Amino acid sequence: MITKRFFKTKDEVEVTFQWPQGDSNITTVSLSGDFNDWQATPLKLNRQKVFTTKIRLPKEQSFQFRYLLNDEVWENDHAADEYVPNGLGSDNSVVKTYAPVEA
């Protein structure tokens, strides 16, 4: 799951990335994307049994990312803004930091 927090006075967006542990055997979750040169950033498991991390990203851009579960299985975020082919036979998740249009 992805949530976004837009700041009125900053040119960045705080994006919270979350992956539920559920009843599975998931012990580690890392986040890799073009915003961190595809280096694995570990998510922390909270009391609600959800792995989470917050990253500030520049506004008005799109970023590709994936989750790495237990250091071996790649997964996409089901709440991603879109998906794009990654050239490896699967897709990458995309998060967009465009400000919402006000009515």
UniProtKB/TrEMBL annotation:
Pfam families with a match to the protein in the record: AMPK1_CBM
Domain of life of the source: Bacteria
InterPro entries: AMPK1_CBM, Ig-like_fold, Ig_E-set
Domain AMP-activated protein kinase glycogen-binding: 13-93
Protein name: Isoamylase early set domain-containing protein
Record lineage: Bacteria, Pseudomonadati, Pseudomonadota, Gammaproteobacteria, Vibrionales
